[in-house]
Design a protein that fits this description.
Its EC number is 5.3.1.17. By secondary structure, this protein is mostly beta strands. It is 4% helix and 43% strand. It has helices at residues 9-12, 17-24, and strands spanning 2-4, 25-26, 35-40, 46-50, 57-58, 74-80, 85-89, 92-96, 101-104, 111-115, 124-130, 138-141, 150-152, 158-161, 170-176, 187-193, 199-200, 205-206, 210-217, 225-231, 234-240, 244-248, 253-258, 263-270, 279-280. A hairpin with a 2-residue loop joins strand 20 (225-231) and strand 21 (234-240).
């Protein structure tokens, strides 16, 4: 597990392009038949993936966690951006289709990942945060019938935003947040831009009580997103390719514009779960 330390906005002002990418960019996110994990000291989030192709993968506690098992003191959010697969949690198997999600509560010990088709493997994207209480493990779907172990995303949590005229027509789906799927601090969801739109999260904002990670996907091989970050008056950018993630400190803006429309998964960790607790920045104030 790669470990990255926290950073200061004063330091970022002096970063080269190489240093900026080294600190915040996560590349090669999905590696067939591997679990990849990056531990950030920024709110102690773990970002990673499990991509089972020809073999079953097990989520284990790395030495850096000083834990007997991965979720001994943590909670986990998962969204599958690949083919259909399965997550087995302490002997209970969940069928996780394309763009299904899961919340897995603290205390779950044995967690394994498999794919239905090795030629079209599941790509389980992972966000994990420290936890202080146990909340129910649930499968999260956009449509279908709810049950004890299945949560359907509420209509009010499927939010259409922006417009084609402003190049930011998009739909935001909230998977993990209070009132739908309870967690200690983790929030997670997915935003998809409509054809002709390229801007996300505009007007941009910060939220001083939560950091955020973006993972961009559904980009063509030659596509890219210019991801903007830094303080509103000290902005920087990172060129990002398909299925790459970026760590954004709480003091940093986080928005992007792509060479075409795309989707991204956002995950937030911090002390405040109020989704609308944001400090917006006017376009005219960006430097």
């Amino acid at each position: 597990m790669e470990v990255r330390t926290a950073s200061s906005p004063k330091d970022m002002k002096h970063y080269t392009t190489e240093r900026l990418r080294e600190e915040y960019l996560i590349q090669n996110t999905f590696i067939p038949d591997e679990v990849k994990l990056v531990y950030s000291h920024i709110d102690r989030i773990i970002v990673g993936s499990a991509t089972p192709a020809k073999k079953e993968l097990t989520l284990t506690a790395k030495e850096e966690l000083r834990a007997d098992y991965f979720l001994q003191r943590r909670e986990l959010g998962v969204i599958n951006i690949g083919g259909a697969g399965h997550i087995c949690i302490d002997g209970k198997i969940y069928d996780v289709a394309h763009k299904d999600g899961m919340y897995i509560g603290m205390g779950s010990k044995d967690i394994t990942f498999t794919s239905d088709d090795p030629e079209n493997p599941a790509k389980f994207y992972l966000n994990s945060a420290p936890a202080h209480a146990v909340y129910p493990t649930v499968l999260i779907k956009k449509e279908g019938q709810p049950s004890k172990d299945v949560v359907i995303i509420k209509d009010e949590n499927k939010v259409e935003m922006g417009s084609l005229e402003e190049s930011n027509h998009r739909t935001l789906c909230k998977y993990i947040l209070p009132g739908q799927v309870e967690s200690c601090q983790l929030e997670m969801g997915m935003t998809s831009l409509e054809p002709g739109s390229v801007w996300n999260s505009m007007p941009c904002h910060t939220h001083d009580r939560r950091m955020e990670v973006y993972m961009y996907f559904e980009l063509p091989e030659d596509g890219f997103v210019m991801h903007y970050m830094g303080e509103p008056q000290e902005t920087r950018h990172i060129v990002m390719r398909n299925e790459e993630a970026v760590i954004n400190p709480s003091w940093s803006i986080h928005c992007g514009s792509g060479s075409k429309n795309y989707s991204f998964i956002w995950g937030m960790v911090g002390e405040n779960q109020d989704f609308d607790d944001q400090d917006f920045v006017l376009n005219k104030d960006l430097l």
